[in-house]
Every structure is written in structure tokens, then in C-alpha cells.
Amino acid sequence: MTNPILITTTETIPGKHYEVLGEVFGLTTQSKNVFKNIGASLKNVVGGEIKAYTEMMTESRDVAIDRLRQNALAMGADAVVMMRFDSGAIGTDMQSVAAYGTAVKYYD
């Protein structure tokens, strides 16, 4: 998706002046299918990275950022500053990811 909205973890954007529009966020909750959960359980016995869950978290992060971007666009924002992530487990096989930040509009 080509998008003109800058998303940054910094508090300011060098060289830009802007007004704050408000908070924006993007949320997703995902889980893997039962076969990948079984594979993850077996991997848990021997240790090491559980790639299916790493992939799920990467996908969750990307979905959350895209939803944050859509929320900012709907507000008429040019950028999002102070973007952060939060995540948590729901039960034993679901993961929730939130991307949040402050939508801003350039004025010069």
C-alpha cells in the first residue's frame, strides 16, 4: 500500500510544524490454526524459536500499523508521531497487537 502518511516513533518531525489532531490506533487479534499450534507445542518441549508464532506476530504488527494509518487518514492527518506497540495474549493461542500514536496535520 503506497501511503503518504509518515509514521515515526519520535516526538517531533525535524523541519515540520504541525498541529495535534488526536490519538490514533490500530488493533488486531490473531491466532494460528490447530496444526501450527500442535507444532508449536512440540517445539516448546525441545526449545528454540517457534517460527509460526514469530510470523504471526510480524503479520499482526503489519496489520496494526495499516489500521493505525487508515485511522490517521480518516482524521485528515499527514503523519503519526510517538507511535508505539502494545501486545498481549488472549487465552493460550491468540495474540492481540495494538499500534497507537498521535495524529498530526502539517500547517506549513
UniProtKB/TrEMBL annotation:
Short name of one Pfam family: YbjQ_1
TM region positions: none
Signal peptide: none
Domain of life assignment: Bacteria
Record PANTHER family: UPF0145 PROTEIN SCO3412 (PTHR34068:SF2), UPF0145 PROTEIN YBJQ (PTHR34068)
Sequence similarity: Belongs to the UPF0145 family.
Protein name: UPF0145 protein FC90_GL001763
